[in-house]
Design a protein that fits this description.
By secondary structure, the chain is an alpha/beta fold. It has a single domain, classed as Rossmann fold, CATH 3.40.50. 34% of the residues lie in helices and 25% in strands. It contains eight helices and ten strands. The strands form two sheets. It has a six-stranded mixed sheet, sandwiched between helices. It has a four-stranded antiparallel sheet with strand order 2-1-4-5, covered by helices on one side. Helix 5 links the parallel strand 7 and strand 8. Helix 2 packs across helix 3. The longest helix is centred in the last third of the chain and has 16 residues. The two termini are 35 Å apart. The model has no long low-confidence stretch (mean pLDDT 92).
Length: 241
Amino acid sequence: MDCIVLNQVNKYFGDKQVLKDVSLGVPYGCIYGLLGPSGCGKTTTVKIMAGISESTSGETFVLGRRMPQLSLMNEIGYMAQSDALYMMLSAADNLEFFAAIYGMKKEQYKKRILEVMELVNLAEDLKKPVAAYSGGMKRRLSLAMAILHNPKVLILDEPTVGIDPLLRQDIWKELYQMSDRGVTILVTTHVMDEALKCHRLAMMRRGVLIAQGTPAELQEKIGASSIEEAFIYYGGDEHED
């Protein structure tokens, strides 16, 4: 069985259907990309995976257990599209607060906080109040918080928006290393070059998965010269409402 499984998942908000029979499987240790324009249903999909939202119908399993499942909280790292940070607190206070929620011991999280802040290039800003951070710094802090507790599953919603290209390379290098250690990673993106970095990819439009496979497979199947060309071919060329 795959690490993350969605089986005919549907989601309604009132009368509006935002996910339509979404089925996919994310293998253990895989970096799996969910590619699609804004408003296509990516965020709703990953919220269901993370146990933050519940599908209207269908089944979702993570690490072999049906979601939502409170007991899986410590196994999943989730980075939302909007930064959930306490602005008046320092970055260190934010990280310590979440470390306590994850049940980490003090001697354990003190060292880990330094590690994750080094990774996102914020070690020198650890004591600064988050209110003084730029938008890009807040995104990087959110990523540090998502990986703080060494989760088995990492779900990242548009993780590198507003992050400079050099640091983005470092972050992807770390994602590959985490994947090599067996961490399963789900990344949503609308950026084509990031889609190419994923081991496997699902393309989404208007709440429907329109294609799945490796980036190479998706291009070769139709003789496309780029992932963007493939995306347009499979029907993802329009911006969603």
